[in-house]
Amino acid sequence: MSKIIMQTPLVEMDGDEMTRIIWQQIKEEVILPFVDLKTEYYDLGLPNREATADAVTIAAAEANKKYGVSVKCATITANEQRVEEYHLSKMWPSPNATIRAILDGTVFRTPIVVNGISPAVKSWQLPITVARHAYGDVYKATEYRIPGPGKAELVFVGDDGTKWCETIYDFEDAGVLQAQYNKDSSIKSFARCCFEYALETKRDLWFASKDTISKIYDQSFKNIFQHIYDNEYKNKFNELGIEYFYTLIDDAVARVIRSKGGFIWACKNYDGDVMSDMVSTAFGSLAMMTSVLVSPQGVYEYEAAHGTVTQHYYRYLKDEETSTNPMATLFAWTGALNKRGEFDNNKELIKFAKTLEETAVATIEEGTMTGDLINMWEGKIIPHKVSSLEFLQAIRQKLEKIYS
Ligand code: NAP
Ligand code: MG
User: Which residue among 128, 179, 275, 338 sits deepest, i.e. has the most Cβ atoms within 10 Å of its Cβ?
Assistant: First the structure.
Protein backbone atom coordinates (compact mmCIF):
# COMPACT_ATOMS: atom_id res chain seq x y z
CA MET A 1 0.00 0.00 0.00
CA SER A 2 1.11 3.59 -0.51
CA LYS A 3 1.34 5.75 2.58
CA ILE A 4 -1.02 8.65 3.21
CA ILE A 5 0.61 11.93 2.23
CA MET A 6 0.58 15.01 4.48
CA GLN A 7 0.85 18.56 3.13
CA THR A 8 1.70 20.47 6.30
CA PRO A 9 3.73 19.27 9.29
CA LEU A 10 2.27 18.64 12.71
CA VAL A 11 4.12 20.22 15.60
CA GLU A 12 5.34 17.25 17.63
CA MET A 13 6.23 17.86 21.29
CA ASP A 14 7.97 14.89 22.86
CA GLY A 15 7.93 14.41 26.62
CA ASP A 16 9.13 12.36 29.57
CA GLU A 17 9.29 8.98 31.26
CA MET A 18 6.76 6.24 30.44
CA THR A 19 4.78 8.39 28.03
CA ARG A 20 8.00 9.11 26.08
CA ILE A 21 8.45 5.35 25.61
CA ILE A 22 4.83 4.93 24.54
CA TRP A 23 5.14 7.93 22.21
CA GLN A 24 7.81 6.15 20.19
CA GLN A 25 5.84 2.89 20.16
CA ILE A 26 2.69 4.61 18.90
CA LYS A 27 4.59 6.24 16.04
CA GLU A 28 6.40 3.04 15.05
CA GLU A 29 3.47 0.66 15.33
CA VAL A 30 0.35 2.48 14.21
CA ILE A 31 1.30 5.72 12.43
CA LEU A 32 4.54 5.42 10.44
CA PRO A 33 3.53 2.20 8.60
CA PHE A 34 0.46 4.00 7.22
CA VAL A 35 1.23 7.73 7.05
CA ASP A 36 4.13 9.54 5.42
CA LEU A 37 4.35 11.50 8.67
CA LYS A 38 5.52 15.08 8.52
CA THR A 39 6.30 16.69 11.86
CA GLU A 40 8.33 19.56 13.19
CA TYR A 41 9.90 17.95 16.26
CA TYR A 42 10.47 19.64 19.61
CA ASP A 43 11.92 17.69 22.50
CA LEU A 44 10.15 18.92 25.64
CA GLY A 45 11.65 16.15 27.75
CA LEU A 46 13.08 17.61 30.97
CA PRO A 47 16.77 17.00 30.01
CA ASN A 48 16.31 19.08 26.86
CA ARG A 49 14.35 21.80 28.65
CA GLU A 50 17.36 22.01 30.98
CA ALA A 51 19.83 22.03 28.06
CA THR A 52 17.96 24.82 26.27
CA ALA A 53 17.06 26.80 29.41
CA ASP A 54 13.42 26.06 28.51
CA ALA A 55 13.70 27.93 25.19
CA VAL A 56 12.48 24.74 23.48
CA THR A 57 9.05 25.04 25.15
CA ILE A 58 8.58 28.60 23.91
CA ALA A 59 9.78 27.66 20.42
CA ALA A 60 7.31 24.75 20.36
CA ALA A 61 4.41 26.99 21.38
CA GLU A 62 5.37 29.53 18.69
CA ALA A 63 5.52 26.74 16.09
CA ASN A 64 2.08 25.61 17.29
CA LYS A 65 0.80 29.12 16.55
CA LYS A 66 2.41 29.09 13.12
CA TYR A 67 1.16 25.68 11.96
CA GLY A 68 -2.12 25.58 13.89
CA VAL A 69 -1.96 22.00 15.23
CA SER A 70 0.31 20.20 17.66
CA VAL A 71 0.43 16.90 19.51
CA LYS A 72 2.10 16.86 22.92
CA CYS A 73 3.44 14.03 25.05
CA ALA A 74 3.06 14.29 28.84
CA THR A 75 5.93 16.14 30.49
CA ILE A 76 7.32 16.34 34.01
CA THR A 77 6.42 19.48 35.90
CA ALA A 78 9.56 20.18 37.88
CA ASN A 79 9.41 20.28 41.67
CA GLU A 80 12.12 20.08 44.34
CA GLN A 81 12.47 16.33 44.01
CA ARG A 82 12.84 16.58 40.22
CA VAL A 83 15.46 19.32 40.54
CA GLU A 84 17.56 16.79 42.45
CA GLU A 85 16.70 13.79 40.28
CA TYR A 86 17.54 15.57 37.01
CA HIS A 87 20.26 17.90 38.38
CA LEU A 88 18.35 20.95 37.17
CA SER A 89 19.86 24.42 37.29
CA LYS A 90 16.39 25.83 37.93
CA MET A 91 12.84 24.67 38.70
CA TRP A 92 11.59 25.13 35.13
CA PRO A 93 7.93 26.14 34.88
CA SER A 94 5.24 23.68 33.81
CA PRO A 95 5.38 23.36 29.98
CA ASN A 96 1.59 23.20 29.91
CA ALA A 97 1.33 26.51 31.75
CA THR A 98 3.90 28.10 29.38
CA ILE A 99 2.08 26.86 26.28
CA ARG A 100 -1.31 27.86 27.67
CA ALA A 101 -0.03 31.37 28.44
CA ILE A 102 1.29 31.77 24.88
CA LEU A 103 -1.80 30.35 23.15
CA ASP A 104 -4.31 31.78 25.68
CA GLY A 105 -6.47 28.73 25.32
CA THR A 106 -9.21 26.74 26.98
CA VAL A 107 -8.68 23.07 27.86
CA PHE A 108 -11.38 20.59 26.81
CA ARG A 109 -11.25 17.11 28.36
CA THR A 110 -13.29 14.25 26.95
CA PRO A 111 -13.39 10.58 28.00
CA ILE A 112 -12.95 7.78 25.46
CA VAL A 113 -16.02 5.60 25.83
CA VAL A 114 -15.90 1.84 25.09
CA ASN A 115 -18.54 -0.88 25.40
CA GLY A 116 -17.74 -3.17 28.30
CA ILE A 117 -16.56 -0.40 30.61
CA SER A 118 -19.58 1.37 31.96
CA PRO A 119 -19.44 4.71 33.72
CA ALA A 120 -20.02 4.73 37.49
CA VAL A 121 -23.03 6.94 36.75
CA LYS A 122 -25.43 4.53 35.07
CA SER A 123 -27.38 7.16 33.14
CA TRP A 124 -24.30 8.43 31.23
CA GLN A 125 -24.45 7.08 27.68
CA LEU A 126 -22.39 9.72 25.90
CA PRO A 127 -19.11 11.41 26.87
CA ILE A 128 -19.16 14.64 28.88
CA THR A 129 -16.54 17.22 27.93
CA VAL A 130 -15.31 19.50 30.70
CA ALA A 131 -14.06 22.88 29.44
CA ARG A 132 -11.77 24.48 32.00
CA HIS A 133 -10.92 28.17 32.01
CA ALA A 134 -7.19 27.85 32.58
CA TYR A 135 -6.45 31.41 33.69
CA GLY A 136 -6.45 33.36 36.96
CA ASP A 137 -8.70 32.90 40.01
CA VAL A 138 -7.23 30.89 42.88
CA TYR A 139 -4.27 29.78 40.69
CA LYS A 140 -2.97 33.34 40.58
CA ALA A 141 -4.28 34.49 43.95
CA THR A 142 -2.34 36.61 46.41
CA GLU A 143 -2.45 35.09 49.86
CA TYR A 144 -1.45 36.28 53.27
CA ARG A 145 -1.42 34.72 56.70
CA ILE A 146 -2.78 37.28 59.13
CA PRO A 147 -0.58 37.14 62.22
CA GLY A 148 -2.95 38.80 64.69
CA PRO A 149 -5.59 41.50 65.23
CA GLY A 150 -5.88 44.20 62.54
CA LYS A 151 -7.89 45.45 59.59
CA ALA A 152 -7.69 43.93 56.08
CA GLU A 153 -8.62 46.20 53.16
CA LEU A 154 -9.00 45.66 49.44
CA VAL A 155 -7.61 48.62 47.47
CA PHE A 156 -7.62 49.50 43.78
CA VAL A 157 -5.76 52.51 42.39
CA GLY A 158 -6.61 53.33 38.78
CA ASP A 159 -4.00 54.68 36.33
CA ASP A 160 -6.10 57.84 36.28
CA GLY A 161 -5.72 58.18 40.03
CA THR A 162 -9.21 57.02 41.07
CA LYS A 163 -9.11 55.03 44.26
CA TRP A 164 -11.46 52.38 45.59
CA CYS A 165 -11.12 50.81 49.02
CA GLU A 166 -13.25 48.49 51.09
CA THR A 167 -12.76 46.77 54.41
CA ILE A 168 -12.58 43.03 54.02
CA TYR A 169 -12.60 42.13 57.70
CA ASP A 170 -11.60 43.51 61.07
CA PHE A 171 -9.54 40.63 62.38
CA GLU A 172 -9.86 40.15 66.12
CA ASP A 173 -7.22 37.41 65.92
CA ALA A 174 -4.98 35.47 63.52
CA GLY A 175 -6.46 34.24 60.21
CA VAL A 176 -5.97 34.01 56.45
CA LEU A 177 -6.56 36.28 53.48
CA GLN A 178 -6.76 35.74 49.72
CA ALA A 179 -7.31 38.04 46.74
CA GLN A 180 -8.21 36.69 43.29
CA TYR A 181 -8.52 38.33 39.91
CA ASN A 182 -9.49 37.64 36.34
CA LYS A 183 -9.59 39.75 33.18
CA ASP A 184 -12.51 40.45 30.85
CA SER A 185 -10.26 39.69 27.86
CA SER A 186 -9.50 36.20 29.19
CA ILE A 187 -13.13 35.48 30.11
CA LYS A 188 -14.20 36.58 26.62
CA SER A 189 -11.73 34.30 24.91
CA PHE A 190 -12.78 31.45 27.22
CA ALA A 191 -16.41 32.03 26.23
CA ARG A 192 -15.60 32.18 22.50
CA CYS A 193 -13.49 29.00 22.68
CA CYS A 194 -16.44 27.21 24.32
CA PHE A 195 -19.01 28.47 21.80
CA GLU A 196 -16.72 27.56 18.88
CA TYR A 197 -16.06 24.10 20.29
CA ALA A 198 -19.81 23.52 20.78
CA LEU A 199 -20.44 24.48 17.13
CA GLU A 200 -17.61 22.26 15.95
CA THR A 201 -18.76 19.21 17.94
CA LYS A 202 -22.50 20.03 17.57
CA ARG A 203 -23.18 19.62 21.26
CA ASP A 204 -25.02 21.66 23.88
CA LEU A 205 -22.95 23.97 26.07
CA TRP A 206 -23.58 24.47 29.78
CA PHE A 207 -21.83 27.10 31.84
CA ALA A 208 -22.08 27.20 35.59
CA SER A 209 -20.71 29.38 38.38
CA LYS A 210 -21.79 30.74 41.76
CA ASP A 211 -23.22 34.13 40.77
CA THR A 212 -25.82 34.15 43.56
CA ILE A 213 -23.01 34.39 46.12
CA SER A 214 -20.30 36.07 44.05
CA LYS A 215 -22.45 38.93 42.77
CA ILE A 216 -19.69 40.79 40.94
CA TYR A 217 -16.94 38.26 40.23
CA ASP A 218 -18.94 35.23 39.04
CA GLN A 219 -21.72 37.47 37.77
CA SER A 220 -19.17 39.00 35.34
CA PHE A 221 -18.43 35.56 33.89
CA LYS A 222 -22.15 34.88 33.50
CA ASN A 223 -22.84 38.24 31.83
CA ILE A 224 -19.89 38.04 29.44
CA PHE A 225 -20.96 34.55 28.30
CA GLN A 226 -24.55 35.71 27.80
CA HIS A 227 -23.56 38.85 25.92
CA ILE A 228 -21.27 37.00 23.51
CA TYR A 229 -23.87 34.28 23.01
CA ASP A 230 -26.69 36.72 22.24
CA ASN A 231 -24.59 38.84 19.87
CA GLU A 232 -22.40 36.30 18.09
CA TYR A 233 -23.64 32.74 18.48
CA LYS A 234 -27.39 32.52 19.09
CA ASN A 235 -28.33 32.16 15.41
CA LYS A 236 -25.60 29.64 14.69
CA PHE A 237 -26.69 27.54 17.69
CA ASN A 238 -30.33 27.68 16.55
CA GLU A 239 -29.37 26.57 13.05
CA LEU A 240 -27.59 23.50 14.43
CA GLY A 241 -30.33 22.80 16.97
CA ILE A 242 -27.95 23.01 19.90
CA GLU A 243 -28.43 24.93 23.12
CA TYR A 244 -26.47 27.19 25.44
CA PHE A 245 -27.60 27.73 28.98
CA TYR A 246 -26.28 29.09 32.24
CA THR A 247 -27.08 27.54 35.57
CA LEU A 248 -25.80 27.68 39.14
CA ILE A 249 -22.87 25.33 39.80
CA ASP A 250 -24.88 23.41 42.44
CA ASP A 251 -27.69 22.87 39.96
CA ALA A 252 -25.21 21.88 37.24
CA VAL A 253 -23.64 19.21 39.46
CA ALA A 254 -27.05 17.68 40.13
CA ARG A 255 -28.08 17.86 36.46
CA VAL A 256 -24.81 16.34 35.24
CA ILE A 257 -25.36 13.27 37.43
CA ARG A 258 -28.92 12.83 36.14
CA SER A 259 -28.01 13.47 32.48
CA LYS A 260 -27.39 11.11 29.58
CA GLY A 261 -24.12 12.96 28.81
CA GLY A 262 -23.21 14.24 25.38
CA PHE A 263 -22.66 17.93 26.20
CA ILE A 264 -19.87 20.37 27.03
CA TRP A 265 -19.67 21.63 30.59
CA ALA A 266 -17.79 24.93 30.83
CA CYS A 267 -16.30 25.56 34.27
CA LYS A 268 -14.30 28.26 35.97
CA ASN A 269 -10.67 27.37 36.65
CA TYR A 270 -11.04 25.64 40.02
CA ASP A 271 -14.37 23.96 39.22
CA GLY A 272 -12.86 22.64 35.99
CA ASP A 273 -9.78 21.32 37.76
CA VAL A 274 -11.87 19.39 40.29
CA MET A 275 -14.79 18.36 38.09
CA SER A 276 -12.64 17.00 35.27
CA ASP A 277 -11.08 14.54 37.72
CA MET A 278 -14.53 13.52 38.91
CA VAL A 279 -15.89 13.09 35.38
CA SER A 280 -12.84 11.14 34.16
CA THR A 281 -12.84 8.83 37.17
CA ALA A 282 -16.58 8.23 36.84
CA PHE A 283 -16.10 7.37 33.15
CA GLY A 284 -13.40 4.84 34.00
CA SER A 285 -9.82 6.01 34.11
CA LEU A 286 -7.47 8.95 33.60
CA ALA A 287 -5.78 6.75 31.00
CA MET A 288 -8.96 7.07 28.90
CA MET A 289 -9.22 10.87 29.00
CA THR A 290 -8.12 13.09 26.13
CA SER A 291 -7.38 16.76 26.34
CA VAL A 292 -7.22 19.53 23.77
CA LEU A 293 -6.21 23.14 24.23
CA VAL A 294 -8.10 25.43 21.85
CA SER A 295 -7.06 29.05 21.41
CA PRO A 296 -9.51 31.80 20.46
CA GLN A 297 -7.58 32.08 17.14
CA GLY A 298 -8.38 28.44 16.40
CA VAL A 299 -4.98 26.92 17.27
CA TYR A 300 -5.13 23.36 18.65
CA GLU A 301 -2.84 21.40 20.96
CA TYR A 302 -3.75 17.74 21.62
CA GLU A 303 -2.52 15.65 24.54
CA ALA A 304 -3.47 12.97 27.06
CA ALA A 305 -4.99 14.17 30.32
CA HIS A 306 -2.69 11.97 32.43
CA GLY A 307 0.94 12.57 33.39
CA THR A 308 4.16 10.73 32.59
CA VAL A 309 3.13 7.65 34.67
CA THR A 310 6.31 7.80 36.75
CA GLN A 311 5.62 4.68 38.83
CA HIS A 312 5.37 2.54 35.69
CA TYR A 313 8.54 4.12 34.31
CA TYR A 314 10.58 3.23 37.41
CA ARG A 315 9.36 -0.36 37.03
CA TYR A 316 10.17 -0.29 33.30
CA LEU A 317 13.74 0.85 34.13
CA LYS A 318 14.10 -2.19 36.42
CA ASP A 319 12.98 -4.40 33.51
CA GLU A 320 9.78 -5.27 35.34
CA GLU A 321 6.61 -5.86 33.36
CA THR A 322 4.46 -2.78 32.76
CA SER A 323 1.08 -2.43 31.16
CA THR A 324 0.58 1.29 30.63
CA ASN A 325 -2.50 2.27 28.67
CA PRO A 326 -1.58 4.18 25.48
CA MET A 327 -5.19 5.10 24.55
CA ALA A 328 -5.20 8.75 25.62
CA THR A 329 -1.83 9.42 23.96
CA LEU A 330 -2.98 7.58 20.84
CA PHE A 331 -6.13 9.73 20.75
CA ALA A 332 -3.96 12.85 21.08
CA TRP A 333 -2.28 11.74 17.83
CA THR A 334 -5.55 10.96 16.07
CA GLY A 335 -7.06 14.25 17.24
CA ALA A 336 -4.10 16.15 15.82
CA LEU A 337 -3.97 14.17 12.56
CA ASN A 338 -7.70 14.67 12.08
CA LYS A 339 -7.45 18.43 12.68
CA ARG A 340 -4.43 18.68 10.35
CA GLY A 341 -6.54 16.84 7.76
CA GLU A 342 -9.41 19.30 8.23
CA PHE A 343 -7.12 22.32 7.85
CA ASP A 344 -5.47 20.88 4.72
CA ASN A 345 -8.66 19.35 3.33
CA ASN A 346 -6.87 15.98 3.41
CA LYS A 347 -9.73 13.46 3.42
CA GLU A 348 -7.46 10.42 3.54
CA LEU A 349 -5.76 11.67 6.67
CA ILE A 350 -9.12 12.40 8.34
CA LYS A 351 -10.31 8.91 7.41
CA PHE A 352 -7.12 7.34 8.79
CA ALA A 353 -7.47 9.17 12.13
CA LYS A 354 -11.06 7.95 12.47
CA THR A 355 -10.15 4.39 11.47
CA LEU A 356 -7.30 4.29 13.97
CA GLU A 357 -9.62 5.43 16.77
CA GLU A 358 -12.29 2.89 15.85
CA THR A 359 -9.72 0.12 15.60
CA ALA A 360 -8.26 0.96 19.02
CA VAL A 361 -11.73 0.94 20.60
CA ALA A 362 -12.60 -2.32 18.82
CA THR A 363 -9.40 -3.93 20.13
CA ILE A 364 -10.52 -3.25 23.71
CA GLU A 365 -14.11 -4.26 23.00
CA GLU A 366 -12.83 -7.59 21.67
CA GLY A 367 -11.06 -8.20 24.99
CA THR A 368 -7.44 -7.11 24.45
CA MET A 369 -6.51 -4.38 26.95
CA THR A 370 -3.93 -3.02 29.38
CA GLY A 371 -4.00 -3.84 33.10
CA ASP A 372 -5.75 -0.68 34.25
CA LEU A 373 -8.87 -1.58 32.25
CA ILE A 374 -9.06 -5.26 33.28
CA ASN A 375 -10.42 -4.44 36.74
CA MET A 376 -13.16 -2.28 35.29
CA TRP A 377 -14.13 -4.69 32.54
CA GLU A 378 -17.79 -5.75 32.54
CA GLY A 379 -18.00 -7.16 29.03
CA LYS A 380 -19.03 -10.75 28.25
CA ILE A 381 -15.68 -11.73 26.69
CA ILE A 382 -12.94 -12.83 29.09
CA PRO A 383 -10.36 -10.03 28.84
CA HIS A 384 -6.74 -10.60 27.97
CA LYS A 385 -4.10 -8.41 29.64
CA VAL A 386 -1.32 -7.14 27.38
CA SER A 387 1.63 -4.73 27.53
CA SER A 388 1.46 -1.33 25.83
CA LEU A 389 3.46 -2.66 22.92
CA GLU A 390 1.32 -5.79 22.52
CA PHE A 391 -1.79 -3.64 22.60
CA LEU A 392 -0.44 -1.41 19.84
CA GLN A 393 0.67 -4.44 17.82
CA ALA A 394 -2.90 -5.82 18.04
CA ILE A 395 -4.19 -2.53 16.63
CA ARG A 396 -1.54 -2.60 13.90
CA GLN A 397 -2.57 -6.08 12.76
CA LYS A 398 -6.14 -4.91 12.31
CA LEU A 399 -5.03 -1.75 10.48
CA GLU A 400 -2.82 -3.76 8.14
CA LYS A 401 -5.87 -5.80 7.13
CA ILE A 402 -7.89 -2.62 6.48
CA TYR A 403 -5.11 -0.90 4.53
CA SER A 404 -3.68 -3.93 2.67
P1 NAP B 1 0.10 10.27 36.28
O2 NAP B 1 1.32 10.21 35.46
O3 NAP B 1 -1.15 10.63 35.57
O4 NAP B 1 -0.08 8.84 36.97
C5 NAP B 1 -0.80 8.64 38.16
C6 NAP B 1 -1.28 7.19 38.23
O7 NAP B 1 -2.42 7.04 37.40
C8 NAP B 1 -0.28 6.17 37.72
O9 NAP B 1 0.65 5.80 38.70
C10 NAP B 1 -1.20 5.05 37.29
O11 NAP B 1 -1.72 4.36 38.42
C12 NAP B 1 -2.39 5.81 36.71
N13 NAP B 1 -2.22 6.11 35.26
C14 NAP B 1 -2.09 7.33 34.67
N15 NAP B 1 -1.99 7.20 33.37
C16 NAP B 1 -2.04 5.88 33.09
C17 NAP B 1 -1.97 5.12 31.89
N18 NAP B 1 -1.83 5.71 30.71
N19 NAP B 1 -2.06 3.76 31.99
C20 NAP B 1 -2.21 3.16 33.18
N21 NAP B 1 -2.29 3.83 34.35
C22 NAP B 1 -2.20 5.17 34.30
O23 NAP B 1 0.28 11.31 37.47
P24 NAP B 1 1.48 11.54 38.50
O25 NAP B 1 2.14 10.25 38.83
O26 NAP B 1 0.89 12.36 39.57
O27 NAP B 1 2.51 12.45 37.72
C28 NAP B 1 3.67 11.98 37.07
C29 NAP B 1 4.37 13.12 36.37
O30 NAP B 1 3.54 13.62 35.34
C31 NAP B 1 4.68 14.31 37.27
O32 NAP B 1 6.03 14.68 37.09
C33 NAP B 1 3.74 15.41 36.80
O34 NAP B 1 4.37 16.66 36.87
C35 NAP B 1 3.49 15.04 35.38
N36 NAP B 1 2.17 15.45 34.83
C37 NAP B 1 2.16 15.92 33.56
C38 NAP B 1 0.96 16.25 32.94
C39 NAP B 1 0.97 16.75 31.53
O40 NAP B 1 2.03 16.86 30.93
N41 NAP B 1 -0.16 17.07 30.97
C42 NAP B 1 -0.25 16.07 33.64
C43 NAP B 1 -0.21 15.56 34.93
C44 NAP B 1 1.01 15.24 35.52
P45 NAP B 1 -1.10 2.98 38.98
O46 NAP B 1 0.29 3.33 39.44
O47 NAP B 1 -2.03 2.65 40.08
O48 NAP B 1 -1.08 1.99 37.87
MG1 MG C 1 -6.83 18.39 39.01
Answer: 128
Ligand at minimal distance from the CA of 96 is 1
pLDDT tens readout for residues 377-401: 998 999 999 999 999 999 999 999 9
Half-sphere exposure of 9 (CA within 13 A, CB side): 13
Q: Indicate the top mutation candidate among 309, 324, 325 to test ligand 1's pocket, ranked by most ligand atoms within 8 A of CB.
A: 309
Which ligand neighbours the alpha carbon of 306 most closely?
Answer: 1
The three-state DSSP-derived secondary structure of the chain is CCCEECCCCEEEEECCHHHHHHHHHHHHHHHCCCEECCEEEEECCHHHHHHCCCHHHHHHHHHHHHHCEEEECCCCCCCHHHHHHCCCCCCCCCHHHHHHHHHCCEEEEEECCCCCCCCCCCCCCCCCEEEECCCCHHHHCEEEEECCCEEEEEEEECCCCCEEEEEEEEECCCEEEEECCCCHHHHHHHHHHHHHHHHHHCCCEEEEECCCCCCCHHHHHHHHHHHHHHHHHHHHHHHHCCCEEEEEHHHHHHHHHHCCCCCEEEECHHHHHHHHHHHHHHHCCHHHEEEEEECCCCCEEEEECCCCCHHHHHHHHCCCCCCCCCHHHHHHHHHHHHHHHHHHCCHHHHHHHHHHHHHHHHHHHCCEECHHHHCCCCCCCCCEECCHHHHHHHHHHHHHHHHC
Which residue out of 308, 315, 322, 329 has the highest number of ligand 1 atoms within 8 Å of its CB and is therefore the one to mutate?
A: 308
How many A from CA of 263 to the centre of ligand 2? 20
Tell me the per-residue pLDDT of 318-360, one tens digit each, with 9 for 90 and over.
998 889 999 999 999 999 999 999 999 999 999 999 999 999 9
User: In the predicted model, is pLDDT for residue 50 greater than 80?
Assistant: yes
C-alpha–C-alpha distance, residues 197 and 238, integer Å: 15
